[in-house]
Amino acid sequence: MELIDFSECERNEFRAYGGASGNKINIIYEGHGYMLKFPPKPGPISDLSYVNSCTTEYIACHVFQSMGIAAQETLLGTFKDSHGNVRNVVACKDFAEGNKTLVEFAHLKNTCLDSDLDGYNTDLASIMRAIDEQRLIIPDRLRTFFWNQFIGDALLANFDRHNGNWGILVNERVRHADLAPVYDCGSCLFPQLDDKGMERVLSKPTEIDDRVHMFPKSTLMINRARINYFEFITSLEDIDCDAAVARLYNHIDLDRIEGILDETPGLTPLQHRFYMTIIRARKEGILDVAFERMEHRS
Q1: How many helices (H) and strands (E) does the chain have?
Q2: SS3 50
Q3: Nearest Cα to Cα of residue 285 among 214, 218, 185, 217
Q4: In this structure, how many other beta carbons lie within 10 angstroms of the beta carbon of residue 237?
Q5: Closest CA to 89 of 39, 27, 132, 133
Q6: CB atoms < 10 A from the CB of 289, how many?
Q7: What is the largest distance, in Å, between two alpha-carbon atoms of the chain?
Q8: How many CA atoms lie within 13 A of 153 on its CB side?
Q9: CATH 3.30.420.40, domain 4-93, yes or no
Q10: pLDDT tens digits along 127-183
Q11: What are phi and psi of 81, to 5 degrees?
């Protein structure tokens, strides 16, 4: 597959997007609206470039889809800006077209009057109470989606899934609500690592081990501490998390995921090896361990 040049696509100036992860514009491509995301720029006190965030967004969304989890449709390409600079971009199909409105979970959580924490607070118990209290989606269905997304994020090492980047789609005119697909996955698979960083990690088994057992951590919190994916999932202490592991385990096909990498436009051999190594290591080190412990427990 080739990178798509989006430079000449019609631009929709009447659609804008929030979030802090880089510039975003809306374009029309093959008759549909797409959000074109540009890589975030380094902050004033950070030298992290997130050079690969467009690529990791694309890969992560396709991996979610391969697991049977609805995720936004993504395309990789380039865009020439007004200064003549050609920039790598990821095009995310706009799933809120027509009369649909995306309601972030943070906003939905704010409608829960019994909640003692604000919408953006990621305390796990508070999120679970809000899922039970909200009235737009059957709680069991929303809870299943939440934990499916969590397991996908665990596999893909997502360090930035918060209440502002998942949610539901609402059509006020017909008074209907449904789950939004998984979106905003650019923080998966260590997007801040450049080629030298990837080579360093691949050359040291301890670096890979740390990226399975130590970091990144989830943004979800218990007792004001961020959840360690490995410790939380393999502890088998949360019945809903355990159910998600059991539900998804046989749908995680490493051969299929490698096929996704094979077909990712512009992916270098080094990136291919790094991403596959991380995904394989996290599956084996987290999800395989949890699944085997569940089998022994039963």
Answers
A1: 11, 11
A2: coil
A3: 214
A4: 11
A5: 39
A6: 16
A7: 62
A8: 30
A9: no
A10: 999 999 999 999 999 999 999 999 999 999 999 999 999 999 999 999 999 999 999
A11: -85, 180
Average pLDDT (8-25) is 86
Q: What is the mean pLDDT of the chain?
A: 94
Residue 92 CA to residue 134 CA, distance in Å, equals 28
Asked if 163 and 104 touch (Cβ cutoff 8 Å), the reply is: yes
Distances (CA, A) of 170 to 107, 133, 197, 213, 229: 12, 17, 42, 38, 31
Query: Using CA atoms, how far apart are residues 27 and 7, in angstroms rounded to an integer?
Result: 9
Q: Rounded to 5 degrees, what are φ and ψ at 173?
A: -60, -40
Q: Are 94 and 35 in contact (CB under 8 A)?
A: yes
Phi, psi of 168, rounded to the nearest 5 degrees? -130, 160
* Tokens describing residue 230: 């490995």
Reading the block at residue 151, the tokens are 């397991």
Element (H, E) at 40: none
| Angle between helical axes of 254-262 and 53-66 (0-180°, round to 10) | 140
Token pair, residue 3, equals 């990178």
Question: CA-CA distance, 266 to 263, in Å (whole number)?
Answer: 9
